[in-house]
């Protein structure tokens, strides 16, 4: 390790800090060389974690000061955990009263924070903190014209209480960040937003547990229509089955390019949100897909499609079989735990009437990922008829040996050798990922790596 160039060592340290925000401190205590490399490369200090309630306020200020000093001009991603702090009183400035020096320090350096993640046990505490570290009207003060927070994630650790279906609380905290382009709400009450507050919002993610009250579709549409620049939408929640709004009422919905839905009542919501601009679609049905054959609701330009949790009943199979045959620009297809073998068969059939310029349905398809025993039976036929496809099959859950040991899940792939799928390098990489997953560390979810 000591023979590596400082630039390469710094890049390794940067990857370490992506998985553990406190990695710069740990690596800096290894040796003098490690400390010099870590403290001379600002990109290593791009993530800061503060846990209020664990230690004194002075310790948190000293830690934050070290990060702000070493990160230089690099944008900083900050996580603040306030679940162990005292509950807020009726005074909205409880955070400023309990942590006055930390509030002053964060206000002074707020222009350097690019992304902010808040973990709190109540929405009230989270938004009181946001109000405390910013001014009441940042747009009217030239001192805060550099306030450039682009990403805000709020995660609530307690259960969402029951509430009236039409109730949408308005949190003024969202108006404090006019440049916000990414908003993720985990276990958070769906707020009411007005267009000036989220004018530049491009990414919106709503994640709620299955035990939370269902979200009315009208409430979701009202929130989405307030973000004219929205291009990616992710909804993971139960949806209530109230009557759908008039199609003319959602004519002002933004033109989405990426849509991820893990919901019930999937057909009706998809019909409302899909548009001709959609390129990437991920669907997970929480109950059962019951649709009728018809148009594709503007999915003709779709490039990526992932389907999961859909039962293989005859009506569902016929519907998706019809859909696959009418996606001419599809490039990537993922079928997880899907019992509809007709979908895979459609990829090996020739359109009628015969057109030599087309050859197969989905002519631009380059990658197919399948799972389930039924899919394995069709895997070889698919690869033989379309050899240019990169086909991957996932065997499902880990296999339990008679000795009680868990073996990694089986993944087969028909691809070239080297460093790609099915190579020795790929096998070892998947083994490492499985080991980390068993330890509770996700290598693909940046929010869980704090």
From TrEMBL:
InterPro entries reported in the protein's UniProt record: F-box-like_dom_sf, F-box_dom, LRR_dom_sf
Family matches, as Pfam families: F-box-like
Domain of life: Eukaryota
Domain F-box: 1-48
Name of the protein described by the UniProt record: F-box domain-containing protein
The species this protein was found in: Lentinula guzmanii
Higher taxonomy: Eukaryota, Fungi, Dikarya, Basidiomycota, Agaricomycotina
């Amino acid at each position: 390790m000591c023979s590596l160039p400082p630039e390469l060592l710094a890049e390794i340290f940067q990857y370490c800090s992506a998985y553990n925000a406190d990695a710069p401190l740990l690596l800096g205590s290894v040796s003098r060389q490690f400390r010099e490399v870590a403290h001379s490369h600002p990109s290593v200090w791009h993530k800061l974690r503060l846990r209020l309630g664990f230690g004194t306020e002075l310790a948190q200020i000293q830690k934050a000061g070290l990060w702000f000093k070493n990160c230089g001009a690099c944008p900083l991603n900050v996580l603040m955990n306030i679940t162990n702090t005292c509950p807020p009183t009726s005074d909205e400035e409880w955070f400023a009263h309990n942590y006055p020096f930390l509030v002053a320090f964060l206000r002074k350096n707020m222009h350097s924070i690019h992304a902010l993640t808040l973990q709190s046990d109540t929405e009230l505490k989270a938004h009181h903190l946001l109000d405390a570290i910013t001014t009441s009207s940042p747009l009217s003060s030239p001192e805060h014209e550099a306030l450039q927070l682009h990403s805000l994630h709020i995660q609530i650790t307690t259960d969402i209480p029951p509430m009236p279906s039409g109730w949408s609380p308005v949190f003024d905290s969202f108006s404090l960040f006019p440049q916000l382009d990414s908003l993720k709400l985990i276990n958070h009450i769906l707020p009411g937003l007005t267009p000036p507050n989220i004018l530049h919002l491009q990414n919106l993610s709503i994640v709620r547990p299955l035990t939370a009250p269902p979200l009315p579709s009208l409430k979701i549409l009202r929130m989405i229509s307030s973000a004219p620049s929205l291009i990616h939408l992710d909804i993971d929640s139960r949806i209530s089955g109230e009557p759908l709004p008039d199609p003319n009422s959602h004519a002002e919905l933004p033109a989405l390019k990426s849509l991820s839905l893990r919901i019930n009542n999937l057909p009706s919501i998809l019909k409302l949100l899909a548009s001709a601009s959609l390129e990437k679609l991920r669907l997970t049905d929480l109950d059962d897909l019951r649709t009728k054959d018809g148009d594709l609701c503007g999915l003709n330009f779709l490039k990526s499609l992932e389907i999961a949790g859909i039962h293989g009943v005859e009506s569902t199979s016929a519907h998706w079989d019809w859909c696959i045959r009418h996606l001419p620009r599809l490039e990537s297809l993922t079928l997880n735990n899907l019992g509809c073998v007709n979908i895979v068969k459609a990829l090996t059939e020739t359109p009628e009437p015969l057109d030599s310029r087309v050859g197969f349905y989905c002519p631009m398809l380059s990658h197919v990922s399948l799972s389930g025993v039924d899919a394995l039976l069709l895997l070889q036929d698919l690869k033989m008829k379309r050899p240019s496809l990169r086909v991957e099959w996932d065997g499902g859950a880990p296999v339990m040996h008679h000795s009680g040991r868990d073996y990694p899940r089986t993944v087969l792939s028909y691809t070239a050798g080297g460093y790609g799928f099915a190579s020795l390098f790929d096998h070892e990489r998947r083994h490492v990922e499985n080991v980390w997953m068993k330890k509770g560390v996700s290598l693909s979810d940046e929010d869980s790596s704090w």
